[in-house]
């Protein structure tokens, strides 16, 4: 088997399938393993128990999938075209800000399908081929692996950065037993002395360069955290109801980012610029219908209302918002009732001051 020629073909097939870049790395992540264990020991993962559940398998691909000797990493741009400017949405406290990666179809479905297609292409030339595809769906150190395969470098905000594509992209992997040639060494970092992402984080979750305390991160608070959002952090969330893009929005490298050409990532239902009270008025049936095939569906209706209630509490005082909150003051969910009560207290203070 001419593995050099096969590696070239894999990259050609990957680009034809819509990936902007494809790289190949080995499975040695010793340095990453040490950093992960330190991060877990500090409790920075919060309630994300899955980060610790599989132990060091996250950093040892050959233990997760026996026989793995190479990882094929892919990168796909996701920033949707023709969306409302993010800063303009966040500056209007009556609107809802949703992280731009979640405005279209669930990326897990899109990337997994393309990765399986890439694996099928490989199988046409290699019959004895074992593999497994991943896209943020298993204990995989995707940023470390992508960095090793020269798809970019880990930025100070902990996301992967590329000089040609910034950070508005998804990552996916194929674990394989094929001894393909490597794309090492890893690309050096180009963050330099820049501290833009640290300074911009609304909750100061980036506690040091390359170190994130997820417990303070708005993406964690609005997506991963299932219970009550800590009181001191609620005012800092603003109108971000699903995720947060601030660290990416201020990153100088995103001047070079490309908008996605994937129809699946086009914003749906006008969610790039929609009013908070409109979303708060959705019943559960509407929520499930609107978000069928969306990554947002995974947080569930109760958490969705919790997030919007916090945003309404942070919104400029108005009778419309107060009325919307009062309509859910007796919600069946204790979690929703708690956050609505907090938001009503904030709104009544705003209205009282205005009067």
From TrEMBL:
Q: Which HAMAP family does the UniProt record give? A: QueG (MF_00916)
Protein encoded by which gene? queG
**What is the purpose of this protein?**
Catalyzes the conversion of epoxyqueuosine (oQ) to queuosine (Q), which is a hypermodified base found in the wobble positions of tRNA(Asp), tRNA(Asn), tRNA(His) and tRNA(Tyr).
Q: What is this protein called?
A: Epoxyqueuosine reductase
Q: In which pathway does it act?
A: tRNA modification; tRNA-queuosine biosynthesis
Domain called 4Fe-4S ferredoxin-type: residue spans:
182-211
Lipoprotein listed as a keyword: no
Keyword annotations of the record = 4Fe-4S, Cobalamin, Cobalt, Cytoplasm, Iron, Iron-sulfur, Metal-binding, Oxidoreductase, Queuosine biosynthesis, tRNA processing
């Amino acid at each position: 088997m001419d593995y050099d020629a096969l590696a070239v073909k894999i990259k050609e097939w990957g680009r034809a399938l819509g990936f902007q870049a494809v790289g190949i790395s080995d499975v040695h992540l010793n340095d990453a393993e040490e950093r992960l264990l330190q991060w877990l020991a500090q409790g920075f993962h919060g309630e994300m128990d899955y980060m610790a559940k599989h132990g060091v398998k996250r950093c040892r691909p050959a233990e997760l999938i026996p026989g793995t000797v190479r990882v094929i990493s892919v990168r796909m741009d996701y920033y949707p075209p023709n969306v409302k400017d993010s800063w303009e949405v966040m500056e209007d406290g009556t609107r809802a800000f949703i992280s731009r990666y979640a405005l279209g179809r669930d990326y897990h479905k899109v990337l997994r399908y393309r990765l399986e297609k890439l694996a099928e292409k490989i199988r046409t030339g290699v019959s004895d081929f074992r593999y497994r595809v991943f896209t943020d769906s298993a204990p995989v150190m995707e940023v470390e692996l992508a960095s090793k395969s020269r798809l970019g470098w880990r930025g100070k905000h902990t996301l992967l950065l590329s000089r040609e594509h910034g950070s508005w992209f998804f990552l996916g992997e194929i674990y394989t037993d094929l001894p393909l040639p490597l794309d090492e060494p890893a690309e050096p970092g180009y963050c330099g002395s820049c501290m833009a992402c640290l300074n911009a984080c609304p909750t100061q979750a980036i506690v040091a360069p390359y170190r994130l305390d997820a417990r303070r991160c708005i993406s964690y608070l609005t997506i991963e955290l299932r219970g009550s959002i800590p009181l001191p952090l609620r005012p800092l969330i603003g109108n971000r109801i699903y995720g947060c893009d601030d660290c990416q929005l201020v990153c100088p490298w995103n001047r070079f980012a490309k908008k996605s050409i994937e129809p699946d990532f086009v914003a749906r239902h006008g969610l790039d610029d929609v009013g908070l009270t409109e979303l708060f008025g959705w019943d559960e049936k509407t929520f499930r219908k609107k978000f069928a095939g969306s990554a947002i569906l995974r947080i569930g209706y109760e958490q969705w209302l919790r997030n919007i209630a916090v945003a309404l509490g942070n919104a400029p005082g108005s009778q419309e918002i107060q009325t919307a909150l009062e309509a859910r003051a007796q919600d069946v969910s204790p979690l929703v009732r708690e956050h609505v009560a907090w938001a009503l207290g904030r709104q009544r203070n705003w209205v009282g001051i205005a009067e």
